[in-house]
Specification:
Strand order of the largest sheet: 3-8-9-10-5-4
Radius of gyration: 28 Å
Strand content: 35-45%
Number of domains: 2
Helix content: under 10%
Oligomer: single chain
Number of helices: 1
Shape: elongated
Number of strands: 20
Length: 248
Amino acid sequence: MTGIKTYVQTDLRVAPTEATHLVRLEDMVEYVAGLTKQPVSLVSGANLAGAYVKSTKTMTLSAVGALEIDGVAVAVDDRVLLASQTDLSQNGIYTVKTPGAAGPAAVLVRAKDFTSNSDLINGTIVPVEGGEQYAGTRWKLSISSTPYVLDTSDLVWSVQIAEFTKIMEADFLLEGDGETQTWTFNHNFGTHKVTAEAYKEDTWETVVIGGVTRESENSVSVNLGVPLEADENIVLILRAKVPQSITL
């Protein structure tokens, strides 16, 4: 009898290490095309001052001591992304050669997949595994000038933002008294468009609303068209589509 294999869902923000690990098709297609690089451990969101030697593609930092990036001490062979160098041509993926100590300064060398002009692909994505601020984010490369020349072209990296719409909802009870046909409610949806639905409390039968009027930024009035009888209660549901964004 064949044993049962366990498949672990992952993506390229966590490097697959087993044959049974799954990856998203989108990530795999981008990786094969060279658009998604293997993850880096950390990304620097600030300029790291140092001396860069083009012939050896090596960055020796000016500050003596152990190097920390995004609040985490680096280790030998860590892959790191420099995304905010003052000299934009110095940006890119590096491997930590020397992490720095009390005496020597840290030394970084461009990673094997970021050492030639052919490695420069506009739109390249780099996932980030760690860091206090940027763990789990994805960074995108933009190169505006052609041809793409490593150590010459400006390499602009930006964190990816995903836009989506969140549905916010609030419900209110309309209690009938035989006279009232208009109610005003406060909400916290701001200036976003508000829609309303109404249902009978006992049967959840749909009730036709006469009209919904925005009274102010955070209040609306609802008119049923006729007074609500004393023995009737209606549940009013207000909804709003609110744009949201997340950092990937």
